[in-house]
Fold each of these.
Amino acid sequence: MVVAKRRSRTGYLLLFPGMTWLAIFFAIPFVTLFMTSLQEPVPGKMGKYQAGFQLSNYTNAMAEYWPQFLRSFIYAGIATLLALVIAYPLAYFIAMKGGKWRPLLLVLVIAPSFASFLLRTYAWRTILADEGPITSFFNALHLLPDDRILNTGIAVVAGLTYNFLPFMILPLYAALEKIDPRLIEASSDLYSSAVATFRKITWPLSLPGVVAGTLLTFIPAAGDYINAELLGSTKDRMIGNVIQTNFIEFRDYPTASALSFVLMAAILVMVFTYIRRAGTEDLL
Amino acid sequence: MSYQVSEAAVEIAGLAKSALSRRRLLQAAGIGGVAIAATACGASGSDAGTATGAPSAATAADLSDTDKTANWSNWPLYLDINDETGEYPTLKAFQDANGIAVTYTEDVNDNNEFYAKVRTQLEQGQDIGRDLVVLTDWMAALWIENGFAQKLDKAIIPNGKNLIPRLADVAFDKSRDYSLPWQSGFGGLGYNKSALKDTLGSDKMTTLDQLFDPKLKGRITVLSEMRDTMGCIMAWQGNNPSDFTDDQFSQAIEELTKQVDSGQIRQVTGNDYIASLESGDVIAVIGWSGDLFALGEDFGFEIPESGGMLWTDNMLIPALAAHKKNAEMIMNYYYDPKVAAEVAAYVNYICPVEGAKAEMEKIDPALAASEFIFPSAATLDRTYVFKALTPEQGDKYEREFQTAIGN
């Protein structure tokens, strides 16, 4: 009994640093943000706000900025799908065929992250430049509606896909690497085709990685504004850009807070629905 | 430019500074993402009404005599620098002569952004840790009106008399009690000469008709500073950017929206357009004079025939600054015509100091003749200072502008 009790106290003690951290840097700002989102303007004083219960901050913000919301989720959705399609074979290869090269290959996956996110996004401006090889190639095939890639939605999605790709590869790798190769052997011993083995064994067992990877990619991608700012045009603004404009240009903190809150709520709802459907609560 | 982006810009500029020449630095700044640039100057125009009834700024005990330091925040590439040593020659001379150690930080990339960073402290009556800041007219007006800027002790700034008469009396600071200009500059047309020749058949761009020529579709950008972009468009439409109606502003917004929707305007940016000009993605811009000169021979700058914009960045001493006198001594030092000429020779912006032109003759006669450093009355007549806006108007116009550019 005594031992058990001491152990549980140790548990709380271990939780303490994490919980304190969360309380100071998450809970308190979260509450402040929520209160700010309900503030009302001080009559006659431009740019000053006071505590209130102005629900119209939310309705007005949504009425004005729903296109940017929609665009954020579409861009993030496409980027997540692309990342999955690119990352799965790569992670599969590293996990199943990588052998002694595995550590090196994994380092290569993470290596770009050693450079600043911003610098890497800037590098894409050079890669996708109008006179650059990639744009010239697609232009020769007459595949580009605006005759360019940079400063279009294509560039923004490409940037998002690239920047968050490692977050897709790593969980996929972790899931795939755990799969017992004997299961796959057994499957082929039982005359299963390669496709059927993948469909019935590999894919279901890698699902936790797929779910984790898509979440880790989609959530930051939906809130990102750097890619839209640097690679997009005025027609590709995402919700992050709008929140930034409201905070810094308009100094309209209530609207910016309301938008941030809606973004968080929308992502939470999507994540829960998704996890429900994917049915892999155990991964969290 | 976004907050995060410019923060990185400052860092990158800092890293690059010691090793690179100014020209190289500009390129590095471009690659590195930066909202940097020779110019880095914010919007234009003098906004805000008069400073009458401005609340007086809080003062702190002045530690200047015992603590020989000062903290100065300025825009990137806005002070002469020795590329070899990374030292600022004029600032070093000041330190050697007065024994005051100045911490010079290039952390102002955008008026709104800088204000957002220090606003809470200013409003709560806390020291923002800076003794001298440089802000564009309309933002300086906002600071003075809100009591965020301290009244200057003119006894310590005798050289203040060298301020050119044109800038001595401005709406937001009638007798320059709170501010002194650092540099002024033009908002107008910048372009890549050879690329322009290839597309339009002329290596000079003098009108917005050329800028909006369909042959340049997707190859132009305009500034995210509302006053510069909207001012140039309004002047082109035959209206007066110094005195316009809501309808005339809306008319200019319509034009901007049209050019954005048609794809003529590729992007709306801050200093970032420099990188796009250098990479060749962009051929022509509405940009800032000093930037284009810093880019070199291959690029040109013209004040549009219909009129360009004129803005000024001002030195202010924030409320509660702990080294007010030291900051005033810096102001005084930079109003010495000889020192002012040295700075102007480097930054290529309009010098606000009387007598600097004569000093410039000794440094570089060509620069002394430059219309963009020492503009003649005829040149100034072709420019407008953006109308002074009330906070309500400022908010309304900024919102209409941001909506037009996708925000």
Amino acid sequence: MLSPDLVETLLRQALKGGADFAEIYAERSRRRRMIVRSGRLEEAISGLDYGAGIRLFFGTEVVYAYTNQLTREGLLEALETLLRAKGALGQVDERGAGGLDFRKALPKGLHTPRTSYGEKDKRYRLERLLEAEAGARMAPEIRQVEASLQEWEQEVLIANTEGTWAEEKRVRTRLFVLAVAQDGTEVQTGYAAPGKSVGLELFDLFPPKEVGAKAARQALTNLRAKPAPAGTMPVVVGNAFGGVIFHEALGHLLETTSVAKKASVLADKLGEEVASPAVTYIDDGTLPHAWGSTEVDDEGRPTERTVLIERGVLKSYMVDRLGHLLTGYPMTGSGRRQDYTFAPTSRMRNTFIAPGDKEVEDLITSVEFGLYAKELGGGQVKPGSGEYNFAVQEGYIIRHGRLEEPVRGAMLVGKGPETIRKVVAVAGDWENAPGMCGSLSGMVPVEVGQPHVLVSEIVVGGRA
Amino acid sequence: MTLEEAKRYLLRRARELGLQAEVLFQEERELSLRARQGTLEEIKEARQGGIGLRVVVQGHVGYAYTEELSPEALEWALSEARDNALLADKEGFIPLGQALGSHDLLGEGLSAPLETKKQSALELERALRDDPRTRSVLMGGYMEKEVRVALSSTLGAEGAFRTGLAGMGGSLVMGDGPSLKQGWDFKLAKEFHLLDPGRTALEIREKTARHLNARPLPTGRYRAYLEPKAMAGLLLVLSRSLSAKSALEGKSRLLNRLGERIASEWVTLVDDPTLEKGLLSRPFDAEGTPAQRTVVVEKGIFKTFLHNAETARALGQENTGHAFRTYRGILDVAPTNLFLEPVGNLRLEKGVLITEFMGLHAGANPVSLDFSLQALGLWVEEGEVRYAVENFAVAGNLLDLLQAIEAVGDELDWEVMGSAFGSPLVAVAELSFAGA
């Protein structure tokens, strides 16, 4: 995208202006989205994102600029704007005089797609979406189905004044199915959305018909569900996307983005027991083809597998470059950003609770009265207080150790550091699921995951 | 190529290829200044622009966009848009256009010197720290955005406008003993000089500190008072159901309910893109339909969906001029400045004052309109706030809530979440609370 010569000129110019560190991030992304409703393609859009971000450190003060003008003039102008904003334009620092020797890291192709986008035409994609819709049309109550495909092919180049030169092509594909079920005036929805760092082999990994059926079954279940009971009770949280609870309630509290500012209730707690001993919590950016995996992070460092909590004891935070400067903790390859319009911050990649030794049945049978939160929707957390909330997309009552009727409209509410101490049992059926996570550096693809876990008590918001 | 050249190139090539085309381009400049512990920890300066293409081939619509303005990238966008249209099966059209003129809705609103803006960001951050209860300030800062939008079509639409916003706010953690609360707020205005760092910081501090030492709220049904910020969140969820596009896609429960009572008599809901100094006012919509004020709900009666030309034709109703599209997106419908009209019959008595809903994207279903939301609140008795309450969720259905509105305050406050949502304080007869 950019020549080493131009990149070197920019980086040296930044050092001359007094910056302690400079980084260029350039990106070209092709995106496609196709949406099928009622058996026909309703909307299709293709797009090309193209831009670059320049980040400079003056001590721990950061200046960031981005532009779509990836010409020599465009980039130099962006850089000058930054130096002017910093009052450093026209300075000459001797550090800009020497040459830069880039260490080029070649991509290993760990997540290279098997079926590239070019191999199949748009008609092929449309047929798969129609299969997904057909899979969802399983009952007369299913009134509306929306199936969409999202393709994202992102080429990045990251170079910095320490000699980093990393290039990577990241390919991600996701299939979404939304089913709307109606009975009289009652309307309920169901949802399924598998996604991976793969090409069109996604359709082999997740047959569209089954994805459609999964969304429809959930909508139908919710249609016959009663309002969830309200109150404090034990909750068995389902595997895979169930992990969003600890993504929100624990993961965000371990990013240096909040830890460095002492804005996380888990700051300064390394080596301390912060969770129940049943909990080992891992953030792994290297899982092959996972939705949140990349070979290098958006600061150009190789991604890593980071054990955050081991048997309840806090072992590591997720650390980006700025977080490292502010805290001294070693970087973990966790610098991420939505695109060139954001400076990176420390973010989760694929974060999950490691499998335990219990059976799922044991978890259920140990509950006298409680909730089985089989599928969760999204949620939110305030790291400063640890308060979180998230929606139960598919839930059932547990009575006398048995799964009974479905309930809907349940919301789990609590404080993360309290909830993580109340995890009393962890099953062995670990799975991950994809999602989009929003924070200071925009929306990034992540996986969340866990086996089934039993939490001794959570506030369940339902109808009082 | 410049955006202007790229626009002319695309329209010329579209005519050569026999395509009807509508070109939307957008240029943005952004400045953000983030302060922490007395220094500017992040300064961001940005320029972004791109061009979005909507074409019609044989009555079907296709889309493409690009931020790269080379001839190759533009040709790629043209061929992708055409392929997308050929594969699409939904009828669509580009409306007959008109000359829309060139408008400036921003003027000199952002023209203060950079140094002054830096000082404001630092002052706000300092003022956030200036409180014994402040445990840490995550950020305090200033941001501004200037946008230029232009629309042209092969059917004669031609217009442009310039607009923008300035904002100031921050995020902090406050504490009293073991009780901790995180607060966040951002004040927006059309002009830099309307922002007041000291007052904004004081408001953020007070709004956060009032939640300290919260008690659990017993599960039960209580009268609820929704502060403007909380109500704005609900209006955002409701706005999806007010979109005729959602209705046509089977995602609105309001379909076939025009002329019916969907809310109490105190509810009049208006969208007005022509509001003077409206945060998201604009002279015309994304299809080039001139802006007009639309009464969506009048004294509880559902008057109209929000429409673009396509949805108005499909439902046989009048176009309200609410076409929405960014250069990166497809044609949609969206409100601009949507607000609940003040009434002035509200007096605080007894119940839970809800200051903010959390997790709206997950806890409120825009199709069924069911919600179950974590909220922050204060217990009110004899018209006065007695103490904060926490760890609870509020559940119900938005349509039931609208019917249960028994009083509406007299002062509008605005929140920008994609569109601008305005509301006074609102009293709801009864809501279901799940807590201790």
